[in-house]
Amino acid sequence: MNKTIVLLLSIFSLISCKTSEVGILVEKGLLIQNAQITSPENQTMSPDNFIVVDGDEIVYVGKDKPNLKGSFTIIDARGRYIIPGLIDGHVHVTGTDALSDEEELDNPEIVKKFREQLPKSYLYFGYTTLIDLGTAKPERLTDFQKTEIRPDLYYAGGGAVIGNGYGLSNWKDDIPNFIYQENEDYPIPEKYLKENHTPKAVAERIAASGAIVLKTYYEPGFDPTQPRFPTPSKALMEELKTEAHKNNLVLVVHGNSLEAHQFLGNAKVDIVAHGLWNWGSHRLDSTNAIPEEIKQVLDVEIENNVGYMPTLQVINGLRELTDSDYLNNPELEHVFPKNLIEYYKANSNVMYANVFGGAPKNIIATNFNRISNQGKINLKYMFDHGGNILFGTDTPSSPTFGNPPGYNGYLEMLEMEKAGVPPSKILAMATIENAKAFNLDQLYGTVESGKKANLLVLNKNPLQDITAYNDIEQVIINGIPFDRKTFSAQKGAE
After folding, report:
1. Which residues touch 17 (CB under 8 Å, ≥6 apart)?
2. Rounded Cα distance, 277 and 257, in Å
3. Helical H segments across 65-183, by residue range
4. What are phi and psi of 481, to 5 degrees?
5. What start-end ranges are recorded for coiled-coil regions in this protein (predicted)?
6. Which CATH superfamily includes the segment(s) 6-85+446-487?
7. Which of 441, 482, 478, 475 is nearest to 53 (CA)?
8. How far apart are CA 197 and CA 393, in angstroms?
9. What is the spatial distance between Cα 393 and Cα 314, in angstroms, rounded to a whole number?
């Protein structure tokens, strides 16, 4: 950030004028006047403010009119609402949504268009900061970072996977970040030295990569007819947490089942990367009551202040494979290139079969609606009882076109409101609470001096109307304002 700001306060004008003037000297900046600032922390509105941006930093917020010296772009925000840019705490900016590695190789032009559009799709829906929670293709992170206009991107460094466990896809690396766990009967290639795969060694390696998150997994598997994946022991998870915190890393753990959440809540991990929508042997019935065993697990997570990401769109995104009309949604035209939508339409039945085999679509849709409702009911319970709820979408979560970048975040918000979470809480989760959870609150989460100038200008009040996030007038990224339409895939197709 530009730290060469000179703030000149005039004592005489403070005494003699009803509206005092604050002198601000910059070479080139941005002035937002008549700004109605929405506070995510206390859920209030502060009208008639001035916001001054120098470079990519907010240098002044207040009601006193600034006496500007320099070249300024001016936005008159009268009648609109200013909020900090949104933070999606769980994305993957790696492959092309729903395309396998082989399909990517066979369709280079589709991949090219998608990669070019990806940062814009997130910005179109107001996501100015992303946390990538794991990729098998680190070079894609680098490619994303090279894009001139993009969300700020943070990441987990390779994933601290339990050796031979779920999520391990990097055996080809010289020193992959798997964790060697004693007393597990599984083969690890002899070329890997045990001392390179302790929690200490892996945490240090991840921190050195520039990551802010240590991501691991508690996933025994999805098919009960298959052998279980190895999962971390209580002692190992405690050691991982200790080493993560020593290296200023946030410990985020994949888990979506009753077994996983029970273990992770008791382990007091920082964040569980999914909601508890897999209830094991329990099923949601017509009473919509949460089974006592599920409540007890949620209560432990609440008591231990474990971050809880509902990730409702994981289930909904898979369900969309059953909907023959989904790809006609006009919103998709803003976030997917036209040639990719055409590819999806031509291959939707194959994509469905790749995930669900020959199962009837109506049965899959019914089951996934039930699981989705289980997730929403749990979310409402967490909200009603003071749980530490964070915003993340897991975009894209699986080989489906039902998790569109950017738009998936808006859909997650709509689902949260359906679950009974008010818009004011959703705003806080997607801004200041995410910023605090990932130790980024010195830069993001509120509209105040010293923060990064990533802002949204909305046409509706986000404290009252969740559709405000699909009525964005301008996106300000790194202090530069853009009309929202700039980021539409339709614009790129012109």
Report:
1. none
2. 7
3. 101-106, 108-124, 138-146
4. -85, 140
5. none
6. Urease, subunit C, domain 1 (2.30.40.10)
7. 478
8. 30
9. 7
Q: What is the pLDDT of residue 180?
A: 86
Tell me the CA distances in angstroms from 453 to 53, 84, 128, one per residue in order: 7, 8, 10
* 3-class secondary-structure state, position 447: coil
**pTM of the full predicted structure?**
0.93
Helix (H/G/I), strand (E/B), else coil: 311 = coil
Q: How far apart are CA 487 and CA 494, in angstroms?
A: 12
Q: 180-184: list long-range contacts, CB under 8 Å, 24+ apart.
A: 181/230, 181/232, 181/233, 181/236, 184/230
CATH architecture of the domain with range 86-437: Alpha-Beta Barrel (3.20)
Q: Which residues contact 193 (CB under 8 A, 6 or more apart)?
A: none
Closest CA to 215 of 186, 177, 175, 189: 177
Domain with CATH 3.20.20.140 in the chain: 86-437
Neighbours of 357 (CB within 10 A): 8
Q: For 124-182, write each residue's pLDDT tens digit.
A: 999 999 999 987 677 889 899 999 999 999 999 877 888 878 876 555 666 678 898 87
**Helix or strand or coil: residue 415?**
helix
Q: Map tokens 């530009």 to a residue.
A: 2
CA distance 213 to 156: 4
The enclosing H or E element of 211 equals: none
Q: How far apart are CA 396 and CA 98, in angstroms?
A: 8
What is the CB neighbour count within 10 angstroms for residue 19?
8
Identity of the highest mean pLDDT range in 168-172, 220-224, 386-390: 386-390
**Torsion angle in degrees (nearest 10) through CA of 480, 482, 488, 494:** -110
Q: Which residues of 54-78 are buried (b: 16+ CB within 10 A; e: fewer)?
A: bbbbbbbbeebebebeeebeebebe
Q: For residues 464 and 81, is the Cβ–Cβ distance under 8 A?
A: no
Q: What stretch(es) of the chain map to CATH 2.30.40.10?
A: 6-85+446-487
For the chain, how many helices (H) and strands (E)? 16, 18
Q: Which residues contact 83 (CB under 8 A, 6 or more apart)?
A: 37, 38, 40, 427, 431, 447, 455, 456, 458, 462
